[in-house]
Amino acid sequence: MPKSLERAESYDLGPRLEGEDRRVHLATRPAEPGEPSYLVAFFERDQKVLDEVEQDVLAAMELASPSIAPVVEVFRNDTELGVVHAATPGVTLLRWLLTKDAPPLDDGAALQIGLEICEALAAAHDRKDAKQKTSPLVHPELGPHQVLIAYEGPALVFSFGLGPLFETGRATPNDALAYLAPEVRKGGANGTRANTYSAGAILWSLLAREPFAKDGPPLRKKRTDLDLKLTLLIDRALSPSVLKRTVSCSQLAQAIERSGGADPEARARWVKALRETFGTVTMEATCFPGATPPREDTLVPPPQGVPPTATKPTSKG
Question: Which helix (H) or strand (E) holds 54?
């Protein structure tokens, strides 16, 4: 790792990742020498916003789902909030979708990935507060750029708890806009039903093997060979009307399980192929609004003393 430039709490920070206006660093702890093990992002906002973010991130840390990207720690100073994630090797789902000649995905692996994502969302939406009342934690900008296909362990959904930061107007990557619910794209409220739409769009992409388009055909017509009950439910999740979108992420997860198609072994084979294609040291800097390189790019830790650079994927077609 390049020589540490500064300290933050118990972390030695490497060079700032180049980009827009967000400080994001690969980092180590002095007691854990070696390659960078953490990704630390700093957010500058007024104290009221930072208080809200800190509260929501701490709530996300309590969620019992292996597919919610774990936050290691949060810390504050007078002007910034620091959020620490493990620097997990893997590839974003968006990168796979946009990369020409990426390893193909079979239905068993696709459904297993989809199941992991829907279970993470269900856990967040079913969250209980201190009084045991349902208090959903809504993902602020769900799309394939926020899903990391980790080389070890389940798929990870990033950005739970960071909603107030997205609400300040950070731009969504163009390739991910279609995954946002119509009411969110129009500036409306973002709720659990908007997350359901995004989950349905991700499932559509996984099973259609191509990026989702809001004017694309219903999945039941594009994949007539799949379980009809499942494809009908996914199509209902993609209803443009929030009032008619009565499907929950928990119901989507249950439908995938009932279909019997999710295959952990097929998923493991696909992830192995991803690792062989994209490399063993790939890490995505996708988990923070405004993080750079661009969220569909891959950050590769550089040789000693060389600043980080981004490698742009090649779009399909």
Answer: helix 47-61
